[in-house]
Amino acid sequence: METTERNPTTLAWVLAVLIGVGLAGGLYWNNNRTLTHRYDQAEQRADSLLSVKFQLEGDNRDLKKQLETAADDKDYLNKRIDNLHGQLTQRDQVVNTLRQTSTGQSRTIRNLNQNVSRLSIVRDSLENQMVAMHDKINWQSQSNASLLKQQNEQQQEQQNRMDARLLTMVPRSAITGDAFRVDVSKSNKKVTAKAKKANTLTISLNIPSVLKLEGIQEVYLSLTDEQQKPMIPALHTTTVTLPDVNEVIPVHATQAVNFARNPQRIFFSLSPETAIKPGIYRAAVFTKDAYLGSVEFRLRDSFWFF
């Protein structure tokens, strides 16, 4: 009987212990889970705070660099400000100088304006004098033109009378060109009389209007020696028709001459390609049907040491 009574009690105690243990285990597990969760949260918070710490440290380093840069910028700006102060001082000096210069220029401009006014008065006076002078010059020019015209008419009339008188005194065939000139020059353009050094021959003459040559005609230059032989090789020969005879002449130069401009001067210039011997030579000028005149000239020999 006692055994039977004890068993339920024991069982009750066992159950109570088990329940207690269960409650204690539940409470421990629940507390342990809560602690674990809190630990996890604390660990996450610690990681977050550590990350924030690292970020703050990086920001701090950036801020230090920015502060250093700002300090450098401040020094640079201070230098710039000092330079600007110096430039402002120089500008003030320049402005003062310009003001003084402007004041002087203003005085100069006033003086110039006064001078211009005086010069304008003088200019007006001079213009009036110039107008009067122009009128006088025009009158004198007209008078001179009239006098020149009268003189030209008188000279032409005298020339015509002289030509007519000359024609009555000598036949036209006896009238030739005049003022013949022969220039012999060396290769350096200096004049020479030595045959050995002759490089260029220039023959010129005047054609008087009394010859009554007309239009454009070919004029021939013929150079011959005392034996009537060509002085130098000729370009060709041609026949000229003269009043008494037809003559074949050697031609050393030719040119077309407009005889509408008589009187005039004709020039021939030639450079011999062969050596010229010393001697006396004759330069004669012809047209196809007229003899215009001639001139003699001498080229002498050279000594061996010249």
Automatic annotation (TrEMBL):
Coiled coil among keywords: yes
Coiled coil: 53-80, 109-165
Domain of life: Bacteria
Transmembrane stretches, start-end: 12-29
Presence of the UniProt keyword Transmembrane helix in the record: yes
Keyword field: Coiled coil, Membrane, Transmembrane, Transmembrane helix
Name of the protein in its database record: Uncharacterized protein
Organism per entry: Spirosoma validum
